[in-house]
Specification:
Layout (H helix, E strand, L loop, with lengths): L4 E5 L9 H13 L4 E3 L7 H11 L8 E6 L1 H13 L2 E5 L5 H5 L4 E4 L7 E4 L2 H8 L11 E6 L7 H7 L4 E5 L10 H11 L3
Parallel strand pairs: 1-2, 1-3, 3-4, 4-7, 7-8
Antiparallel strand pairs: 5-6
């Protein structure tokens, strides 16, 4: 089934202004202008974030939608894919954000605008735990692009978690996938955009 609706999910402290989100938006707009694109600013509360996402896709055709997520957005994308059965592309996806983000409780700044301040509350850690999925229900519908050079997340943990999915393991790169241009065509091909 071709993808007519595409959701992009940014990572922790990130935004729709991230390099990968902008490159994806530009590629979709120029190559597939008829595809419905949605890239919301995610609130810091995981419970609020997933409620917003379910609202965004409420009237989307599950068989014709897909999601791309980076880092924490990859965790959310995995959750969305489990709920809907849709295709997903996961870019250095967080596997256990409840554990990883527990050390970030407190005041945080936005990566793309240091003047934007938000508070990561202790209860958000439990909200992340509540979203932990079990085994991936449709691993064949997932593509995980994982960089061994990721300086934030452990590539071994990511590749083990997504071992049953389509897996592209990069020898170098970094957490931000600074070389995203080199992988964009493969991402677009996997999504099979209308």
């Amino acid at each position: 089934m071709t993808t007519t609706h595409l959701l992009y999910l940014h990572g922790f402290r990130s935004s729709p202004r991230s390099m990968k989100a902008k490159k994806m938006a530009d590629a979709v707009q120029s190559r597939h202008p008829q595809v419905h694109w949605c890239c919301p600013q995610l609130p810091p509360s995981p419970k609020e974030a997933t409620a917003l996402l379910m609202e965004c896709i409420a009237d989307w055709p599950a068989q014709n939608m897909a999601v791309v997520g980076s880092s924490l957005g990859g965790f959310y994308a995995t959750w969305i894919a489990a709920q809907t059965g849709c295709r997903a592309v996961l870019l250095n996806p967080a596997v256990d954000p409840a554990r990883d983000l527990s050390r970030y409780i407190g005041e945080q700044t936005s990566w793309h605008n240091p003047l934007e301040i938000f508070f990561f509350k202790p209860e958000f850690v439990q909200e992340l735990r509540d979203l932990q999925a079990g085994p991936l229900p449709h691993p064949e519908r997932l593509l995980a692009i994982i960089a061994k050079g990721d300086e934030v997340l452990d590539w071994r943990e990511m590749s083990t978690h997504y071992a049953a999915a389509h897996l592209k393991l990069l020898e170098g790169s970094d957490h931000a996938l600074s070389d995203f241009d080199a992988h964009l065509d493969e991402v677009m091909g996997f999504l099979d955009l209308a």
